[in-house]
Amino acid sequence: MRKAICAALAMCLCLSLFVGCGDTANGQGGKANTLYELSYYDETDAKKGYDENLFYENDMEAACADPTAIYINDPNDPDYGWFYMYPTSDSDFGCHGFSAYKSRDLKSWEYVGPIFDPVAESWSHFSCWAPECIYDAETGKYYLFYSAYDYWNSTRTGVPGNDGYTFINNAEKKYYRGIQADVDRIATTGGTDEEKLNNLYAAIDELKAFYESVTADEEASNGRVYTQAQIDEAKSKINDLNRTDGEVKQRIDAAKTCLFYAKTIDVKTLFTDCDYGIGVAVSDSPRGPFVQYTNVEGEEGYDANNRKITIDIPFLASEDVYYWLHDHRSEWYKGPDTPEENPGQMTSAEVSTPMIDVHPYVDPVSGDKYLYMVRDPNGGSAGFIFAMKMGKKWTDDPQWETATRLTRLGYYTTDDMSNGNKSTDLIEGTKINEGPYVYYNKDAKKYYLTLSVNAYNTRSYSVVQAIGDTPLGPFRKLSRAEGGTVVATDFDWDHVSGPGHHSFVTFNDSLYIVYHAHYKRATGGDQRGSCVDEIVWTKNAQGETIMHCNGPTYSYQPKIGPDMQYKNIATQAQITATNVAEDSSVSLLNDRLIRFFTWDEYLKEFTTGDGKETTITMKFDDYVTTRAIMVYNSYDYAMHWEKVDRVEMDFVKTVDGKEIKGTAYIDNLKFDTDRHIGHNGDEEYNFMRPGGAAIAEYDELKVKEIRLTFKHDAPIAISEIYVLGK
């Protein structure tokens, strides 16, 4: 339900800025100003709600998982000024295809509807997951990358010709299916059942003669090479066929089976689960409809010089990836499966798992295109992220020789398996490194690989960051002490669960993370909804530039997007304070950083000294137009406060053509303790739901100086101060 301030309150605020006058107070330069009690709203009334023109909250209006978002910033585009989000559409039509949402603020999402529905002949009918859309200016097209179950992979129950095979590459799969079609053609050629049976027997006799003539390990007449074991197996299957038992139709089935198996002896297969592939669909609009990319003449995207991709072939098959990772990057797998002895290698289990979570990325430095993917754990094997460079076009062949492993489960880097390199503080014990996303910080000249760890339906599902010098790394995950956690759930919390699988979107030079979290905030689960919070760049204790998220939030935060009228201008103010702790600094009050986690020790809050009263003064160079003040409480219950005892703002206002100066004040600005303090069922044990602020919303007021006074019996902490203005 959308929330808004009630009409009566809004009218009150519009009619009168002040509710009364006092005597005087010392204003700028010690001059006496007339005091005016300010009419305001503190956003604490649950029935009235909050002002959506100024704020948002992560109430997860859009039910979705794995959200990726883009912003349409081309003024000539009919969708200019809109954010589009592409999630896993499990709630819409069971992960068969994808839907989209659009928004002006990254919070309130309007359902666009289905944008991609695979046709009946497509390989991607099942488990369509984690789409990501990217615009290509050169082609003027939007490309929707996704992972899905490969329908034609014969390991799937119910797929025609299911014989338990997983193919080593797409060529072998195509060859196998050709054999299927050939055998079916022979088995249906002829008028009567006896004629059909005779055709099958003739084909079997011909095949028997062929295998009698084949020499092991030499190229046969069909251009293939057979081992002696394959030749013997084929002869055995042919000789085991009983040509007399059973009715004619049963003998047809037996002969068909015999012919099929004897003809597929040389098919290269894997006994593993390479059952997911990567697809791409193309559209002229972010709204779709998206059409599955093929390279067939007369179909979308045809290019005579490009590789042939048909509707029933994945753009990137898991088998092809296996072939290159295993056979062409043998330095990764030296075998046996002893990575402790060969730290950089992939085990056979790691290489042979299927692919999910594709992320297309364009390097802003070189303009080169990359695809990042996950080798999916699939219930047993350790998941990891790898990437490779693409051609000049998204639909070109991958540059396989660039395929590079980027993460190793349970370790900060891929090439060191010592105890000192174990990433135990990231709690990666559930065998998952997934949902990759890459962002380049031009000031730091570093690439940031963010990924989700732990199982998606658990409270420990979270996003961490790794840093590298190139798009292909090598990357090093940051520890918690280094600020490695981007969004997560603290053990004590009851208001956020499992924030994970994410994307980043930029608006007005600000960076935001769009992620999903569980509707069951205290326990976790499968049902998820979209959230958004701001990313701020800072330095950790080691001096590295890292991304810090002001979240995950449960509280009201400043509105985002092209319709926002006010932004945080507190960074423009000079700040002084009385009663400052010796180890603290007033610069912490407007550095844009809000602390959320107990383990982020590198991130400090402003703390007061032992005195009983603290006054914070914010001075602007000139009068600024303001609309609200947000004073963020501490993440630490032991340092929290329940109100700002006094707010004073030296203002100027024009009334009837006459300029009036004075001081507006608010007494006892309330912090919403009911919303932001929890007990975990134990009244003796209190904890903060961090990221909450005491808020004063009022009519526009031009101010030059703001003073905040706190009275306290023990030292308190203030995480940040926002001033929403123009």
State the gist of this model.
The protein is mainly β and 726 residues long. Strands 1, 2, 28, 29, 30, 31, 32, 33, 36 and 37 form a 10-stranded mixed β-sheet that branches. Strands 18, 19, 20, 21 and 22 form a 5-stranded antiparallel β-sheet that branches. It is elongated, with a radius of gyration of 32 Å.
What report would you give on this structure?
- The chain is mainly beta.
- The chain has three domains: 7-52 and 568-725, Galactose-binding domain-like (Jelly Rolls), CATH 2.60.120; 58-151 and 272-552, 5 Propeller (Tachylectin-2, Chain A), CATH 2.115.10.20; 170-267, no CATH class.
- Strands 1, 2, 28, 29, 30, 31, 32, 33, 36 and 37 form a ten-stranded mixed beta sheet that branches.
- Strand 23 and strand 24 (510-518) form a beta hairpin.
Structural class based on helices, strands and sheet pairing: mainly beta
How many H/I helices?
A: 9
Using only C-alpha atoms, the radius of gyration works out to 32 Å
User: What is CATH's topology name of the largest domain?
Assistant: Tachylectin-2, Chain A
- Write the CATH architecture name of the largest domain: 5 Propeller
Defining traits:
single chain, 726 residues, mainly beta, Jelly Rolls, Tachylectin-2, Chain A, 3 domains, ten-stranded mixed sheet, five-stranded antiparallel sheet, 9 helices
Tell me the layout of helices and strands:
Elements: H1 7-15, E1 18-26, E2 32-38, E3 55-56, E4 65-71, E5 83-88, H2 90-93, E6 98-103, E7 110-116, E8 124-136, E9 141-150, E10 166-167, H3 170-187, H4 193-213, H5 228-239, H6 248-263, E11 269-270, E12 276-283, E13 291-292, H7 318-328, H8 348-351, E14 355-362, E15 369-375, E16 384-389, E17 404-405, E18 433-441, E19 446-453, E20 462-468, E21 476-477, E22 485-487, E23 500-507, E24 510-518, E25 528-539, E26 545-549, E27 557-558, E28 567-568, E29 574-577, E30 606-607, E31 613-633, E32 643-655, E33 658-670, H9 673-676, E34 677-678, E35 687-688, E36 693-711, E37 717-725
Parallel strand pairs: 2-33
Antiparallel strand pairs: 1-2, 3-27, 4-5, 5-6, 6-7, 8-9, 9-12, 10-11, 12-13, 14-15, 15-16, 16-17, 18-19, 19-20, 20-21, 20-22, 23-24, 24-25, 25-26, 28-37, 29-31, 30-37, 31-36, 31-37, 32-33, 32-36, 34-35
Helix pairs in contact: 3-6, 4-5, 4-6, 5-6
